[in-house]
Design a protein that fits this description.
Blueprint (H helix, E strand, L loop, with lengths): L2 E6 L4 H11 L7 E8 L2 E8 L2 H9 L7 E7 L14 E2 L5 E9 L2 H10 L9 H16 L3 H9 L4 E9 L5 E7 L4 E5 L2 E5 L11 E4 L4 E6 L5 E4 L11 E2 L4 H5 L6 H7 L1 H9 L3 E2 L4 E2 L2 H5 L1 H5 L3 E6 L1 H18 L3 E5 H4 L10 E7 L5 H12 L3 E6 L5 H5 L2 E2 L14 H20 L5 H12 L1 H9 L2 H11 L4 E6 L4 H15 L2 E6 L16 E6 L5 H12 L4 E7 L5 H4 L2 E5 L8 H18 L18
Parallel strand pairs: 17-18, 17-19, 19-20, 20-21, 22-23, 22-24, 24-25, 25-26
Antiparallel strand pairs: 1-4, 1-10, 2-3, 2-4, 5-6, 6-7, 7-8, 8-12, 9-10, 9-11, 11-14, 12-13, 15-16
Bound molecules: 2-deoxy-2-amino glucitol-6-phosphate (AGP).
2-deoxy-2-amino glucitol-6-phosphate binds next to helix 11.
């Protein structure tokens, strides 16, 4: 998804546009751009990377102008690049447009335009749209709003667009179908945004365009809203925005953490979109392809990270060794950087970091590079230091993660690592095509299964109320779900301040079982996979010592349910993919307990979202 901002009025548009884009970066940030109306011309500034990069480019130039449109992009058609960044200008140089959505029949329109002499400079469907509107305007010799209406009636797909003609910059035309678009009504000024955050401090009066509607905005004039198909006037309702800036950014949730927990189906989907291709039975990851030989010939993979990202590396250790048969070692960045590790030039290092700024992980990367290893990065922030420091990489597309407790970034990291394990297994010829395709097909439906797990939120909230006053908690898991036990314990301790530990379930008898009594909640991750029968025994061992058991089980479970005090179900899936589902109830449990304890869930004490110091 992308973010759109527009302004027409008597202020300088540029600061409004850039600040608005920064608030919309949660919608995507692989490139951004602004188009300013200056002395009858269009001044364009476009740049790959975060909005800040484009802002710096523009501030070196002329940023005057009281009409402007702007865009922050999450690439669909065409790689992140300066050329593919919006806004896009028509061949005549008269029209400029920003767009959020997908034009499905853009190829047919592009061929029609090319047959009529139009040329294209980007790979985007958006450049086709702005030229198609130009084409209609030329054919019909009509005003912009009529050309937009006729053009959109022939477009198939989803869009929220903002367009103006350099010869009449005081008039901005917008239209919506399938992607959000909000109009802010100021005094002698109008604002446009994908949501209301870009203009909230200027006006609380907003109109949410409905699907199939378009509008023509001028600074002073009344808003002219019409139906695209019939050109019939629409009398739209003006909303008085109640929410403050932060609550709009929270999408109506009480905390960013809960918003981000619920964004996980989308984050996982966006992370594998364009990479996981079940119909073709393949995975395409450019960073991996570029270094396929290094991975193919790797003697060992060293994964280095911190905190939750270290847990995703632990999950990956099981998957890489299972599917790619490559020895994997997982290292805390902080430990790896200070001991004198043996790193050989045939080693491949994978560094995992949501922020891409964690000092310990960054130091580990630099040390590995000096030793001659190839370093592959998995980050959530394009253009971050770690993303720039590594030889290659693969971004997670979780969108900005604001809550200090990492949730959607974790499941997105596991998604990338799962695809890498599958692809490397295929490259190294380590497992059968049928097994590969079964995993690939199942991964493609995981977002739907995450949505199903999220339906258990009321049950988790009830359970949380029973254990919110606990002083300790024990998390147990086996195999690929042992790291999930660690992750669940970290979530609980970092936002509720309850002491919690994660252990391999089998390790309990080597010490931790001494902790079990009626005051100890024990969370057992026990999906019907792998070592299930042994987990059934572990639950019974806890119950024999009066511990309270909260079990995460596969729906339809018949054995653990007989002993556990509470069960939270996940849908059936393949063992390798269970971490993407079993972690969800543990995220919800930590969230509700922290809220019930009156903790600041998004900003827990003593913590920061990105630990850029040693
Ligand atoms: C996780 O919930 C914590 N916020 C913390 O452990 C975090 O995962 C760690 O600091 C690593 O951050 P990074 O992924 O940005 O490198």
């Amino acid at each position: 998804m992308c973010g759109i901002v527009g302004y027409v009025g008597d202020r300088n548009a540029f600061p409004i546009l850039v600040n608005g884009l920064k608030r919309l970066e949660y919608r995507g940030y692989d490139s951004s751009g602004v188009a300013l109306a200056q002395n009858g011309e269009i001044t364009l500034y476009k740049k790959q990377g975060m909005v800040k990069a484009m802002e710096e480019l523009a501030l070196a130039g002329d940023t005057s102008g009281s009409t402007g449109i702007a865009h922050t992009r999450w690439a669909t058609h065409g790689q992140p690049s300066d050329e593919n960044a919006h806004p896009h200008v028509s061949n005549s140089g008269n029209l400029v447009l920003v767009h959020n959505g997908i034009i499905e029949n853009y190829q047919a329109l592009k061929e029609l335009l090319q047959d009529n002499g139009f040329e294209f400079h980007s790979e985007t469907d958006t450049e086709v749209l702005v030229n198609f509107i130009q084409y209609i305007q030329d054919q019909e010799d009509c005003k912009l709003k009529k050309a937009v209406r006729i053009a959109l009636a022939q477009v198939i797909g989803a869009y929220a667009i903002c367009i103006y003609d350099k010869n009449k910059p005081e008039e901005v035309v917008v239209a919506k179908l399938g992607s959000p678009l909000v109009i802010g009504l100021g005094v002698n000024e109008k604002f446009i945004g994908s949501d209301a955050t870009p203009f909230l401090e200027y006006t609380k009066d907003a109109i949410y365009l409905e699907d199939g509607e378009m509008a023509t905005l001028t600074a002073e004039g009344e808003l002219d809203i019409r139906l695209i198909q019939s050109d019939k006037a629409v009398n739209a309702q003006v909303h008085k925005l109640q929410m403050d800036l932060e609550s709009i950014e929270k999408g109506g949730y009480d905390y960013f953490m809960m918003k981000e927990i619920y964004e996980q189906p989308r984050a996982i989907y966006d992370t594998f979109r364009g990479r996981l291709l079940p119909e073709q039975g393949m995975i395409k990851m450019s960073g991996l392809e570029e270094y396929a030989d290094r991975f193919r010939n790797a003697d060992r993979i060293i994964m280095t990270a911190c905190g939750t990202s270290w847990h995703s590396a632990l999950v990956a250790e099981y998957l890489f060794e299972e599917f790619a048969r490559i020895p994997v070692e997982v290292e805390y960045g902080s430990e790896f950087r200070y001991r004198n590790p043996i790193i050989r030039k045939n080693d491949v290092v994978i560094a995992i970091s949501q922020s891409g700024e964690t000092a310990d992980t960054l130091a580990a990367i630099k040390m590995a590079k000096e030793a001659g290893a190839m370093v592959f990065g998995i980050c959530n922030v394009p253009g971050s230091t770690i993303a720039r420091e590594t030889h290659a990489g693969a971004y997670t597309h979780a969108g900005p993660e604001i809550g200090v407790a990492s949730t959607k970034a974790f499941t997105s990291q596991v998604t990338v690592l799962t695809m890498m394990a599958l692809e490397l297994g295929k490259i190294r010829g380590e497992f059968s095509t049928s097994q590969y395709r079964a995993l690939l097909n199942e991964l493609s439906v995981i977002p739907k299964k995450v949505e199903k797990v999220l339906e258990s939120k009321e049950l988790v909230e009830e359970i949380s109320a029973l254990y919110k006053d606990a002083n300790n908690a024990l998390y147990l898991g086996r195999g690929v779900n042992f790291p999930i036990a660690l992750e669940g314990a970290l979530k609980l301790k970092e936002i509720s301040y309850i002491h919690a530990e994660g252990y391999p379930a089998a390790e309990m008898k080597h010490g931790p079982i001494a902790l079990i009594d009626e005051n100890m909640p024990v969370i057992v991750v026990a999906p019907n996979a792998g070592h299930y029968e042994k987990l059934v025994s572990n639950v019974q061992e806890v119950k024999a010592r009066h511990g309270k058991v909260i079990a995460v089980v596969t729906e339809g479970d018949t054995e653990v349910v007989q002993s556990a005090d509470h069960v939270i179900e996940i849908p059936e899936t393949l063992e390798a993919l269970t971490p993407l589902l079993t972690v969800i109830p543990l995220q919800l449990l930590s969230y509700y307990i922290a809220v019930m304890r009156g903790c600041d869930v998004d900003r827990p004490r003593n913590l920061a979202k990105s630990v850029t110091v040693e």
